[in-house]
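Recall that a protein's primary structure is simply its ordered list of amino acids. Everything else, from secondary elements to tertiary packing, is in principle encoded there. The following example makes that idea concrete.
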Amino acid sequence: MSRRTAVFLLTLLALAPLSAQAQDAKAVAAHVQKALGGKEAWDNTHFIKFSFAGRRTHWWDKWSGRHRVEGQTKDGQKYVVLENINTKEGTAWLDGKKAEGDKAKELLEGAYGAWVNDTYWLLMPYKIQDPGVNLAYDGEEKIDGKTYDKLALSFGNVGLTPGDRYWAYINRDTGLMDRWAFILQDMPKDGPPSVWGWDGWQKYGNIMLAPHRSQLTGGDRKLELGDIAVYDKLPDSVFASPEAVK
């Protein structure tokens, strides 16, 4: 055996376990993508609207990054923020008056943070192959007679909380995520993960979304993603005017 061949074989042996794990993760991710409607359906989805836990409502132009969010502050003031999540530039209004200076900056930063958080609660299965996501197959688990393929997600230097860790439980029969578990970066690293069910999968436009979240460990909270709608067209005023959307 030549030295080059020996080195090559040793390299293959060293990489084999990781390669198998990566292949398993890739296969499960492909199963998820197909179950959600396929890559083409997701890429062709233009506008998404939804509300988060009754607190705020989002309109998102997925193609351009335009984003509108509105709700109420803790003090009961009505706010509207119009921004672009790609540039993080925009304008904000409180009780119908344009915000300026530090207040405008605070509202814009809050709106972007809300978009990051809320869309992850709505769209996480669509984002498991995003750049910066470290995806690994974490084995199978049987729960209530169903078999799940577990995907472990960690992150590179991306997002607002790169220290978060997630586990996606993919129903082997349907390809949909019935639950997730997470340990956020501000939670104890050695503590148990928080586990939530994802329920009510149905088609909106040409993609699948689930509106209901239920806490399965550590409590019995519910979280609703309401008013979900997928649009092919929306008027520019949705993203340009603080006036109420009709």
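The radius of gyration is 21 Å. Helices lie at 3-36, 39-44, 101-123, 237-240.
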